[in-house]
Amino acid sequence: MLRSLLPALLLSSTAALAEVPRVATDIAPVQGLVASVMGDLGTPALLVPPGASPHDHALKPSEARALQEAQLVIWMGEALSPDMARKIDAIAGEAAALALFDLPGTRHLATREDVLFGAADTHDEDHDAHAHDDHAAEDGHEDHDHDHDDHAAEDHGHDHAHGADDPHGWLDPQNARLWLGAIAEALAKADPDHADTYRANAAAAEARLDEAVTTARATLDPVQEARFVVFHDAYQYFEQAFGLQVLGALRLSDATSPSPARLAALRDALEAEGATCIFAEPQFDPHLIETVTASTSLPVAELDPLGSTLAPGADFYPRLIEDMAQRIATCAQG
């Protein structure tokens, strides 16, 4: 169970209803999931704005204030944001925290050591995908708590290459579906008077997500044979969820710049391997894409795993799934 919130929820002098907890979230997809569960009761704060990298974002004063005031922090976890645990400790040390990527049942995929036209991955196949119950039990996350002291003592440094598990787990809609229930229970514990509302909102959000997945599958069905190149290897959860084929990635992580040899290999292989489309991302330098595609007719489109062009709100996450599917299909179909 989550740690009790600060210090006890306030009671109105005229009503016995608990105050809706102040909630902070790290990235827009998480904010969207939380917003769908909170509904009309409140709006979760966003700590990593559109266009910023969650790996190393420095909080602005307004964001730090939102974290300081939060009674509940819902975030992806240290695999995505290595420094966020220290920020929670330093700024909102008494807040309860829910790290979604650490929840039991969450699907984890191993970080691929290379994505370059069939390059071998050194991970064993039976370790490529696993539910995270074993890690959760080992780390004490079965009660959805966040041990600030342990994380504060760790030194994560500033190397943001991915660890053993690919941290982009929000791009698996089944993970998001699982997390909606956990978010509802976290809010219900913090605010028992609105527990039924949170649970009903989560059920409605699950139904809306199912619709989005159905729409995305129909959108992507005509391009199942298409072969894509992406800016960095952030999409394997989405690939596996929807049966897509990614030939290569310019960058293996958010911090690893591609070598000239890698760019040359991509450039030489694009047409030979039958690439259909290459995707840029708004957070990264477009000149790298231009370097690879300069001598080809390969179409270029923008794909953003954080959905920076989408409006925030309760419908953000299903729209992210639909928008990504539509962008992929449009580029593949020319």
The coarse silhouette is: globular
> Domains counted in the coordinates: how many?
2
**Structural class by SSE content:** alpha/beta
Mean pLDDT: 80
Main β sheet profile: 4 strands, parallel
Give an account of the 3D structure.
It is a single chain. 38% of the residues lie in helices and 12% in strands. With 334 residues, it is of the alpha/beta class. It folds into two domains: 23-214, Nitrogenase molybdenum iron protein domain (Rossmann fold, 3-Layer(aba) Sandwich), CATH 3.40.50.1980; 222-332, Rossmann fold. A four-stranded parallel sheet has the order 2-1-3-4, sandwiched between helices. Helix 10 (286-293) links the parallel strand 9 (277-280) and strand 10. The longest helix is centred in the middle third of the chain and has 26 residues, at 195-220.
List the helices and strands and how they pair.
Blueprint: E1 23-25, H1 28-38, E2 45-46, H2 61-69, E3 72-75, H3 84-92, E4 96-99, E5 107-109, E6 129-131, H4 133-139, H5 148-153, H6 173-190, H7 195-220, E7 227-232, H8 236-242, E8 245-251, H9 260-269, E9 277-280, H10 286-293, E10 300-302, H11 316-332
Parallel strand pairs: 1-2, 1-3, 3-4, 7-8, 7-9, 9-10
Antiparallel strand pairs: 5-6
